[in-house]
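Annotated sample (chain length 137).
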Amino acid sequence: MRNLLGRQWRPIARIAAVAWLLVLAPAELAATLARLISAPAGEPGFGPATLIALRVLVTAGGLMLGRRLVSGATGMRPAALAWAVADLGTLVLVLTSGRVPSNRAPGDAPIVWAVYAMAALVVIAASSSTAPPGREP
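Output written by the structure step:
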């Protein structure tokens, strides 16, 4: 189980993982924060504020993981697993709470969670490769 991907898929998985971690996840968080800021005046409450703070921390962890993947660091699988658990766990809380502003249609939560789960699997697979892109055996 040393490598989860064949040699030809490693660069593609790293590109996809880095795109998710450095572009798409922060953009999704920014959109959520923009919806929260533009929502009607009022305090979000302790629960939603905690969920948002957790999502910010998880996204920051994803940014750090993405930077390590870009630099070609190896041995990032434990960090990727921890990030994936935190990301999917906080996403479940956000999707089931209904208290965080969202533009998702009712019933979209399973689809959103499945997309995030696939992205987490790609990040884990990309972090499991033993050689940086361009230096594979």
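Annotation: The chain has four helices and no strands.
Annotation: The radius of gyration is 16 Å.
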